Amino acid sequence: MVTAVSDERTYPSHRWGFGAFLLVEALLLATAALVSVLLAADEPRESIPVRGVLIGTIAPTGIAALAALLITVVRGNGPMTDLRLEWRWDDVKTGLRFGAIGLVVTTVGVAVWTNLVGEENAQSAIGTLVADKPMSVRAALVMFCYIWLVGPICEEIIYRGLLWGAVERLHWGSERWGRWAAFVLSTGLFAVSHLEPLRTSLLLVIAIPIGLARLVTGRLLGSVVAHQVNNFLPAVAILLPALGVMQF
């Protein structure tokens, strides 16, 4: 049984809520659509250069995360307070534990899902984009660092930072129910927002240990670390073929 810890610190209230999250999510989707159109207009999808793949992958999430941070500054108390971005070694350790659980769950889930829908349908959007495209060592390293380290930070800021804070701000009768509501909603929207209908159920399974790290610690660092641990093997799976070491 997972029990959410009580946060000893009292945090000041902020003035942003669901509207802030919806704005950031709309910005994320609009940026992704704009980049896709620009890349498609430049040359056919089959021959999109790796630099275009990197821009198309990194820019939308990065811009949305920066917008989320800006909102906490303009209408709140800053990201460290509003998004619970404190550094605590206990949170890192909790994140590592849930990340390890997530790796096991993800590995089993991917194996089962691939067996059900086939290898082509089970592949992620990023995996599909970079499949069979030559990548320079620099491009491969950038993609690896984004998937493993930077991407999880950006996504956690948006979903288990901004969205989580918006849900907790509502009156749920108790702080405990507010946290569980934030966990359920952020897990669901995180999976759906990837816009990969065939993989939504798999993404839900993957997101649960990450969300539990946020729930248990009461802060964002635990889920960031859990997300990064969970993304390590997928990042390696993209890096090694790009370097010509092996094919997955």
Strand content: under 5%
Spans where pLDDT lies below 50 across 5 or more residues = none
Number of domains: 1
- Would you tell me the structural class of the helices and strands? mainly alpha
The biggest beta sheet reads: none
Q: What's the total number of strands?
A: 0
Q: How do the SSEs run, as a string of H and E?
A: HHHHHHHHHH
Shape: globular
Mean pLDDT: 84
**How many DSSP helices?**
10
User: Termini separation (Å)?
Assistant: 36 Å
**Secondary structure: helix percent:** over 70%
Structural Rg: 18 Å
InterPro entries: Rce1/LyrA-like_dom (IPR003675)
Organism: Haloechinothrix salitolerans
Pfam families: Rce1-like (PF02517)
Protein name: Type II CAAX endopeptidase family protein
What are the SSEs and their pairings?
Blueprint: H1 18-42, H2 50-75, H3 79-82, H4 89-117, H5 119-122, H6 125-130, H7 137-169, H8 175-192, H9 200-217, H10 220-243
Question: What's this model, at a glance?
Answer:
The protein is mostly helical and 248 residues long. The chain has helices at 18-42, 50-75, 79-82, 89-117, 119-122, 125-130, 137-169, 175-192, 200-217, 220-243. The chain crosses the membrane at residues 20-41, 53-74, 94-118, 139-159, 202-222, 228-246.
Task: Please explain how this structure is put together.
The relative contact order is 0.17. The protein is globular, with a radius of gyration of 18 Å. The model has no long low-confidence stretch (mean pLDDT 84). The chain has helices at residues 18-42, 50-75, 79-82, 89-117, 119-122, 125-130, 137-169, 175-192, 200-217, 220-243. It is built from 10 helices and no strands. The protein has one domain (18-243). Helices cover 75% and strands 0% of the residues. With 248 residues, it is mainly α.
